[in-house]
């Protein structure tokens, strides 16, 4: 994080006695300045405790206001302002290096704090930063950007194994919106892995470099896989992308009873493959299906199907040639063996599930779940099929891939999946992941809301 620019003494004196009617300092080099015309609310004065009087209470004379920036308005229209506070060396955190928190330019100091002013309320601290190098290589860096009702913090560091994490937070009401984390080896090409979570949508997308040979690995080089720009499970040679099933445990509301439906507290997939991966066939506007998926634990899976154009099944045909769900699992995989979502082919099993709730063994000897099925309707009065799958063991923990297969004329016409398939085998098999939400029941549907945790906590 770069050096803070200290305000002149006259302005510091003024800042102490007045509320927020303080000219904002130039952005510090470690933070990206907002472009002109961003439409953010101007910093406004508040009554009551002053910014510096609150943020610097009990601290040394080097505590200072670095910048004050408008952040638009909250969801209820209240004006928002974010302030960056610089701390003197005497006020460094107890776990900071002896010489203080690093700055990209200038001497080390006591770090930075970010404070939020909501309308006329007293300022409150959001989070603090102290760059200790963030790893053995000493390449640590922080970048903070303010936008309308949003603060984005990017932190990077590491050693021979580098990492970065971007965290985007709604300020009012507070909610974690997105996280984008990456890690890679600086000495091993094609080692990058990336996880992007859109928390309110329960959408967890993984990207993994998986080079086919040394030449492809050298071409990929060191660094993060590119961010996915479309719904292609292989967006570039040697790069694979997948969706992890979202997991919200029962104690956080991830529990569905007979007759209830999945609302926004689920991963939504569209039959045309956006969102989702259409890995076989072409979209059919007459068969536009919608799926919602939620893991209520490593042993429980809810699947909701909307497919009003689904034809009546032909009982004389195999389940493979009728509309059905496929679930690929690796129940013998040790979930603590690592974070690599690439499956071991020897551990893969597959089961089939038709919309009437019947299960079938596909590849290997899959553990078949107990299935509860019910019909329901959504808010638009459209017919839904809801399936609850429960296993006696945590079979989802080793990774899971869900496929919905649509059939026309007793043949598979299209496959909608949470990851790509190569030679009818999963390219990736990510374990379910927990987004920062909890579920609540509203009018019989399970909807998502912020989980109440600190959105700035790492």
Structure, described:
The structure is a single chain. With 458 residues, the chain is mainly beta. The chain has two domains: 9-149, no CATH class; 246-450, Immunoglobulin-like (Sandwich). 5% of the residues lie in helices and 37% in strands. The chain has three helices and 25 strands. The strands form five sheets. A seven-stranded antiparallel sheet has the order 5-6-7-8-9-10-11, with no helix packed on it. A hairpin with a 2-residue loop joins β5 and β6. The protein starts with 8 loop residues before the first helix and ends in an 8-residue tail after the last strand.
The CATH class of the largest domain is identified as: Mainly Beta
Give the strand order of the largest sheet, numbering strands 1, 2, ... along the chain.
5-6-7-8-9-10-11
* Number of discrete helical segments: 3
Radius of gyration: 26 Å
Taking all residues together, what is the mean pLDDT? 88
Strand content: 35-45%
Shape: globular
Distance between the termini: 18 Å
Question: What quaternary form is this?
Answer: single chain
- The helicity comes to under 10%
Classification by helices and strands: mainly beta
Tally of extended strands? Answer: 25
Q: Summarize the main sheet.
A: 7 strands, antiparallel
How many domains make up the coordinates? 2
CATH second-level architecture of the largest domain:
Sandwich
Query: Could you name the CATH topology of the largest domain?
Result: Immunoglobulin-like
Q: Which series of helices and strands comes N to C?
A: HHEEEEEEEEEEHEEEEEEEEEEEEEEE
Contiguous uncertain segments of 5+ residues:
1-39
